[in-house]
Design a protein that fits this description.
The chain is mostly helical. The protein contains three helices and two strands, in the order αββαα. It has one domain.
């Protein structure tokens, strides 16, 4: 996978009749990789926030409002 700065440099531009960029084109595989990267970044942010909340209550999962896996496993499997 291309690094994001490299990926962004691979963008091609469609220009209008005055030579101004009017659209950006990215290879579909690179587009999919960009979407995957953005999704991963979002997941990392959620995890960071959850860990910060956990740390704020002394790493007590109950105080943080976290559920025990055993308590929710059957709901997810059903």
């Amino acid at each position: 996978m291309l690094a994001i700065p490299q990926l962004l440099k691979s963008v091609k531009y469609v220009v209008d009749t005055k030579g101004r960029p009017s659209a950006a084109v990215l290879d579909i595989e690179e587009w999919k990789r960009l979407l995957e990267w953005l999704d991963d970044e979002e997941d990392l942010q959620v995890a960071r926030e959850a860990l910060a909340e956990l740390a704020a209550v002394g790493n007590d999962a109950n105080k943080a409002g976290w559920l025990k896996w055993e308590d929710v496993r059957d709901e997810l499997d059903g």
